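step: validate -> pass
step: tokenize input -> pass
step: predict -> running
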Amino acid sequence: MFTGLIEGLGEVAAIRHLGADMRFGIKPLFPFEKPVIGESVAVNGTCLTVETAENALLTFYASGETLSCSNISLLAPKSKVNLERALALGSRLGGHLVSGHVDTMGSVQSVREIGQSREITINFDREWAKYIIPKGSVALDGISLTVNTCGFDFLTVNVIPETWKVTTIADWHIGKKINIETDMIGKYILRSRYIEENKPQKSGITEDFLRENGFFA
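step: predict -> pass
step: emit ->
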């Protein structure tokens, strides 16, 4: 579990394609103290497992499924990525609950300066619109942000100077592919509603009904 508060940037050092899968190395550009083999790290909001940690280089393995729904597949040597280590039990939750399970990718439609902040518009497939609400939470490339406005195929967020400075957002441009993880709580609520509305109806045929209609002697 993560919070969407980016700890720092990493730089892709090497990539090796393995059929539909990929193994790659990332060099953290900030103090990444005591990395643990097997720990979870959100890379651009995608939950991945540390395979090795040697000489200030972390290696990860991404399956075909992960590559199919995230921008991990678009990384190249020297690419910058957002990094966040998993939330420790009892730590302060400053962003929102982020699972690291990317739902889909969107693309940057516009970046507009408003004072010292930037308003960014992201387009996405309409099937995800039901999970995104005004003033709700969304994780974009792993960054916890508040939705300003949204429609059937877009959302806008406001990015403050500090977030612009310490994340990859400063490198976003029109057409850039962005990982989107919608709000976890909203997904559970909609799933519960779906199950309730579609659960099998109890049959009206009972033993008394069959007896009354001559099926039993």
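step: describe -> The chain has four helices and twelve strands.
step: cleanup -> pass
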